[in-house]
What does this fold into?
Amino acid sequence: MMKMRRVSIRLPESLMREMDRLVRNGVFQSKSHIVRVAVRELLRKELMDEELLIEG
It folds into this structure.
């Protein structure tokens, strides 16, 4: 497993409730897992968009 670093974020209560629901329903292992998946997907999308701009 890769080395993990801790970050602190603030989220609206509504997002926290939805994250709790997804964890409770077994969709994700934890709220940290949700954040990792979301950040990874955002970075992947941004890199793809950047590559499309370069290829133009």
Observations:
- Residues 14-21+29-55 form one domain.
- The longest helix spans residues 31-55.
- The mean pLDDT is 93.
